[in-house]
Amino acid sequence: MRLLVVEDDPDLNRQLVEALKEAGYAVDAAEDGEEGHFLGDTEPYDAVVLDIGLPKMDGLTVLENWRAGGRTMPVLLLTARDRWSDKVAGIDAGADDYVAKPFHIEEVLARLRALLRRAAGHASNELVCGAIRLDARTSRVTCDGAPVKLTSHEYRLLAYLMHHMGRIVSRTELTEHLYDQDFDRDSNTIEVFIGRLRKKLDTDMIETVRGLGYRLNTPDGAAGEGAGEADGETSAR
């Protein structure tokens, strides 16, 4: 899952980015409203952490512009503790949740997990597909009850597929949602990680849909809603 942090305090920005990366997310960051607005308007983020008090363009204006432009990613707003009016204005502008400063990083992580769960239609932090279990809170994966050791990129790939079980996900979509801007996005990387996951999980539930992408099948093999919504690329093998 790929997130964006828009926070003008350099220390807090760094702390948030480090914590989110440690939790298994790909993260981009901006320190002013103009850059944050541009990134959120042009990149497919799964969620955004957005401060209200930003230079160049304030957070509420950024959020209102995103929503007016049809951007629907979940947004967690950072507000000042004594500004209840900011909280109300933020929710009215399209924020999905808010955290008041000062806050514990763990609260931000928990609220983001909740936003990502709701966006994908899941009620629990634990995602289950057959023998595979992924705990988004602890970033741990088990298969038939045995722990599975994954690299950060393997974990991100599995988490994205499990959040979208039963739906065909194109390689383009995976690349856009798993890697930050600085990652060298080699077109063959996804195939390599898919192969590693199949081997480590000893499963054939990750299906290659020729010409479209990949699908993590549920145990009964039923595809979920949106199964035909991949981008039609022809290079998947």
Automatic annotation (TrEMBL):
Residue span(s) of domain Response regulatory: 2-116
Keyword Transcription regulation appears in the UniProt entry: yes
Keywords per UniProt: DNA-binding, Phosphoprotein, Transcription, Transcription regulation, Two-component regulatory system
Entry GO terms, CC: cytosol; protein-DNA complex
Any GO BP: regulation of DNA-templated transcription
Pfam families: Response_reg, Trans_reg_C
UniProt-annotated stretches for the region Disordered: 217-237
InterPro entries: CheY-like_superfamily (IPR011006), OmpR/PhoB-type_DNA-bd (IPR001867), Sig_transdc_resp-reg_receiver (IPR001789), WalR-like (IPR039420), WH-like_DNA-bd_sf (IPR036388)
Keyword Phosphoprotein applies: yes
Gene Ontology molecular function: any one: phosphorelay response regulator activity
Modified residues (4-aspartylphosphate): 51
Biased composition (Acidic residues): 228-237
DNA-binding region as annotated in the record: 124-218
Superkingdom field: Bacteria
OmpR/PhoB-type domain segment(s): 124-218
Name by which UniProt lists this protein: Two-component system OmpR family response regulator
Provenance organism: Breoghania corrubedonensis
